Amino acid sequence: MWKMKPTAFTYLLLILISCQTPTDKEQTKNKTETLVVNEVQPLAELDEPIDVFEIKNLDWLTTTSGVASNIKNLKFCDWKEEGFFGFYFLIDQEKKGGPVGRLTVHAKDKNGWQFDNRTDEFARIELQTNRIKVWDEIGVGSTKSQLLDFLKPYDITTSDSIVKSRLDNYSAEFTIVSDTVNRLIIERNCKEKNTGANKK
Asked: Which residues contact 79 (CB under 8 A, 6 or more apart)?
């Protein structure tokens, strides 16, 4: 039987094909080299949950105030100067009933504590009204899914009726009723700062 002998052209063609076709190993290497590493960048640190002075001057709100010598562990916060704790009961004067919240501040007035002083620093807030939002986003009336979406970057402990979280320099507790925030407490975190991802 007659057999065709490979010509020089055949050898040259085989060499060209082998040079142009990458091996499986080379393909894997090329893919690896083109991967882009996406590093997670922390977002800006949270501002205070509310503006103390804005809250005190809401048209529909009236307050009664008092002084407290110690509130849980807040006295161990890194306050810039020595001072004392004061609190405001938040009362909706457009509706009948008792306080709808309580705002606790750290004050440093040396000449006595006045309503219009400018030294109050946020320490803690408790709310049972939907007329005030924390971080301009979350409040009484927010759904549980909205709350969890807001808290995504932070450590969360959740059950059917309570959601707790640590947000930067703050600790938060939300009471859930019928899948809706019914009450909330935000408190300055005085012992340690959450070093996880931050949320603006």
From this structure: 106, 108, 121
Interacting residues of 60 by C-beta distance below 8 A, sequence separation 6+: 92, 93, 94, 131
3-state secondary structure (DSSP) of residue 9 = helix
Domain positions in the chain are 52-188
pLDDT in tens, 144-158: 999 999 999 999 999
CB atoms within 10 A of CB 49: 23
Q: Please, where are the H alpha helices in the chain?
A: 8-20, 24-33, 52-56, 144-150
Q: Cα separation of 124 and 183, whole Å?
A: 14
> How many Å apart are CA 141 and CA 129, to the nearest integer?
8
pTM comes to: 0.70
